């Protein structure tokens, strides 16, 4: 039986991507749940139907808001999709998107969720590689300009504690955190917050077992070094630009770059030409619908396209802004955007490195995997390998190829406390560019088994 039919899965669309001006019209019936029994809140959050879906599905799904800060009116949106079969026995997996300032709802429609959007932006089809087989907001607009790593971790912990109160039947279930890109910060920081909270309180409402991050921003120095080498080695930039980038960007923040590094980024944009830097060997979207909110030189740490159809985010932009779709997901009328530039540009605190958190969590015994699509030019495989090398972990199993259907799917190396997997031909957004290989990866991670070899 396929793993896609064996797990519980929910998305936490927790980045502030939905502007509202009044708390009374922001999240319909789902803002608070303390005043009524959990089962009543669950029923209010149940999604009865999705516009554009012409087939019946055999799993339940829920969406709504959880208030994480009453005073400021911060509310986090979730979309929870149960397993197709026997959901009562399956683990819980949460997916976090990067940015900072991007919504995980785009991941549901593009890569890992059961519902994919057709080019008309109005109808859906079922994703054969779904991993189960954000409309978050603040009622105070100034909150969008004061977010950062620490508050994101704190709010996400509050969200999870409250979510498990709303869905108490899932308390104690094995729980895993997954995501990509700038979620390379969110995920270990949230895992650390969970471990420390439960250690200090003596309670264990969240049965955290591990986490997995892909093409993840981890350490600014290593990631900048790896990116420079990748861009040069793949022939995307000139020798002169490579040297200048190493000079001016080697210690630069990925989020708040100094002016001299930003100027080099402008030069790189010109030298790259019209390619998708998130998947360097696949076509770009030539649709008339453009993602105008993303400046070419600044591109988010967690964005964009691939060969199957490089315009999928445009389809999502149409679908999730349909009034009937927002109503079905218990969201009052609002503008949905995959990424919100104001959040990115005003991000307050961005750790220069989370490697110290890795050391702490490896010692706690969590299952930790890092994966990398090897055609990503934003946080490339070279960056992730420098990050892992900096941890100085003992080698448990040497570098080798892994296989799917008799073909090399990528390469893997196991360390004491961490497993690394490269995905052949995948871009920054691995489940979008190589969905079948991503599902193989996901099965292996959840089972705790090594990536498959050629021999059975």
UniProtKB/TrEMBL annotation:
It is an enzyme of class 3 (hydrolase). It comes from the Eukaryota. GO terms for biological process: proteolysis. Its EC number is 3.4.16.-. Keywords: Carboxypeptidase, Disulfide bond, Glycoprotein, Hydrolase, Protease, Signal. One of its GO terms (cellular component) is vacuole. Residues 1-24 form the signal peptide. It holds the Pfam family Peptidase_S10. This is Carboxypeptidase. It comes from Coptis chinensis.
